[in-house]
Design goal:
single chain, OB fold (Dihydrolipoamide Acetyltransferase, E2P), 5-stranded antiparallel sheet, 1 helix, mainly beta, 54% strand, 16 strands, 186 residues, 4% helix, 3 domains, SH3 type barrels
Length: 186
């Protein structure tokens, strides 16, 4: 069991049979009345964020979480398949849980897989990845690095991003995985 005074950002708890990740919390001691804890929680199964308030000292079932370095192998339409780089054990994670993150991953990339109560549930990507531009409109003569403007591009993983006019097919670009924005040439 874990009490509200043991909360830490990133911990996982079970509330009413649902597992949440603690994103942020704040202990509040008002002048009148009992102390309480205001939290921002992220539901593990679908990623929905909620705000919830608990009484100080309330207890919850602590959830065992573990990060393992794994290699992304492939996806088959229902699951994304990963292999543990140490034990070579393979596992599948439903694509629906990873839709947003899969667009930044190439086969054989290494990522950290989060397992909750021995069940894989999420992956952690680096904040930026370098990917090759597969499709984009050709730049117009006179476009420069300092010239404004962007154009759509499709990357090797199928992700769509807006890139500056001077970027061509075959160029490597660095993209922020959190926002999907072009950062620079790689």
């Amino acid at each position: 069991m874990i009490s509200t005074n043991q909360f830490k950002n990133g911990n996982h708890i079970e509330v009413d049979g649902v597992i949440f990740k603690i994103m942020d919390f704040q202990h509040v001691k008002p002048g009148k009345g009992a102390a309480f804890v205001r939290t921002k929680l992220k539901r593990v199964n679908d990623g929905a964020a909620i705000d919830k308030t608990f009484r100080a000292g309330e207890k919850f079932r602590s959830v065992r979480s573990e990060m393992r370095k794994m290699q992304y192998l492939y996806r088959d339409g229902t699951d994304a398949h990963f292999m543990d780089v140490e034990t070579f054990e393979q596992m599948g994670i439903p694509e629906g849980l990873l839709t947003e993150r899969l667009q930044w991953m190439r086969e054989n990339d290494e990522v950290d897989v989060l397992s909750i109560d021995e069940k894989p549930s999420d992956i952690q990507l680096p904040t930026a990845v370098d990917l090759t531009v597969a499709e984009t409109e050709p730049g117009v003569k006179g476009d420069t690095a300092s010239g404004g403007g962007t154009k759509p591009a499709v990357l090797e993983t199928g992700a769509r991003v807006m890139v500056p006019l001077f970027v061509d097919i075959g160029d490597k670009v660095r993209v922020d995985t959190r926002t999907g924005e072009y950062l620079s040439r790689a």
